[in-house]
Amino acid sequence: MAAAQVDRLAAIEARQGQIIAAVTDFGERHPSTARVLGWLSLDTTGIAFAALFFCWSLSPSLLPRDWLFQGIIGGINAAIGYGLGCVVGWAVTRLVLRGRSWWPLPLPVERAIMVAVPVAGVLAALVALVLAAGQQRQLAALMNAEGTTTSGYLRTCLLSLAVAALLISLWRGLRDIGRWIAGQLIRRTRMPVGLARTLAVMLVVLATFMLIDGVLLRVAYAITNSAFSLQDDTTRPGAVQPLDPSKSGSPESFAPWETLGFEGRNFVSRGLDADELTAINGGPAQEPIRVYVGLDTAETPEERVDLVVDELERTGAFDRSVLVLIPTTGTGWVNPTAAQAMELVHNGDVAMVAWQYSFLPSWISFLADKEKAAAAGEMLIDRVHQRWLELPEDQRPELFVYGESLGTQSGEGAFDSLAEIRETVDGVLWVGPPNSNRLWGQLVERRDPGSTEVEPVYADGLVVRFADSRQEIGVPDTPWLSPRVLYIQHASDPVVWWSPELLFTRPDWLSEPPGPDRLPQMRWFPFVTFWQVSADLTNAAGVPDGHGHNYGTTVLDGWVAVTQPEGWTDTDTERVRIALEALRKTQGPEK
């Protein structure tokens, strides 16, 4: 028995020697062809893991995905799976299989496995694609959106293959550079092989990091900032300079029209005037005040925030019943539906103030410069609050804070705690808060036992409440003290649930019963779920009202709940909602 085993091992070693000799000879005679074949060769275990990760990526996420987004996500995850499979295969071969009497497997078996694994992977991917197309249609139906077709979804496979091939090729290029560096170190310094390889890997990783973080990202940031600053010089069709002195950008304003930026000009020109408010509400209305300062209005943040206060003084904003501070998103965007809701609810007896702190859209500001957003919100709220405190207590307007998306992060930057919010303002409405919001995270983490992460209850809803829809704003049915703090967040909003922790950690919201517009089939998979939700971010607001990052007129109900206007009824809310819906249809999209 022992002799037979020795003979078998000898035969295996001889076969391996023949293969190595043949490969070496071919490589010496045809170096270019050998290099190409080497790049095209794939690890069998890597292929199996790539197919598994691709199939995982087809599981539903928060929002419906078309074949293009799914193809990109599938390719990224397949590449990650391939790399992980290669590592696992190498480790198992080296630590478990080496020295086994039956290893390596006979050549016919190896060849059969090399054929069977890719074929099985393709078949599994096709079956998973068909099932995924059906799930995508179910998810679209939950949101009253148009679903995909099975035949169209099959295009995902080809796109994912191309994306995975590109990423694997990039990795192999970096690997070959590392091998070349190691060879040079060994040849020129007689460095030990192990040390040379380790040092080469460290050099490649460091150089790649420096290239991405120190060059590519900075160049991309500068180019993007320049591109969006050019867009900031344009004006939305239909936006015209206001003549009413109660608006920034008017001839009497300290903030000239041309300095307000794209979003600022849209904000000051899109408001309702006193006649329109009177017609909708059926009673005499005041002319609402809209104050805005753009990046080009003054050179420094300190000068801009002083100009904000000067504009509030000039327009008589401190004489109104309600003063609303609106920390904005990256470009200075203010949700026009929310602003119009405030004007309608208070029949014009309201002043709103916002300012711009970046040229970049929210998602870029969030990734590249979210500290700037928090600092901008803190500066705006602190400066206006200081001036507000100088007024006699019985002559101060009610002071509220409103923010949406990155604007909630900007607004939270002004407060260290819930107690400070209650000491500073008369109420807060925050809509679609990013998962990285510090205060939001603390409140959700400390939610009452038994409440879920998607629908948290904090301290029996005594001060802070979370709502998925207008019907849930009054839940729980317990006393709600003033000043009130309200977060409106959808179970399907990727802005609320995206986090880098999704890479390696299953969050509570994926362990709990799903929200009203999330499929129960959504599961957490390492790496995969992170890229799925990342893709959802790109279409967060592209779904119907009441889903994703599109909050529609729910902001009206939130505003009424937080400000508690005297004598207001549900009939008034529905009357204003009808007016807002009509305005949204006639004035075009919100973003």
UniProtKB/TrEMBL annotation:
Alpha/beta-hydrolase catalytic domain mapped to chain residues: 289-576
Pfam families xrefs: Abhydrolase_9, Abhydrolase_9_N
Stretches that traverse the bilayer: 36-59, 71-92, 112-133, 153-174, 195-221
UniProt entry keywords in alphabetical sequence: Hydrolase, Membrane, Transmembrane, Transmembrane helix
Region (Disordered): 234-254
Keyword Amino-acid biosynthesis recorded: no
Domain Alpha/beta-hydrolase N-terminal: 58-271
A GO term, aspect molecular function: hydrolase activity
Name of the protein in its database record: Alpha/beta hydrolase
Organism: Rhodococcus artemisiae
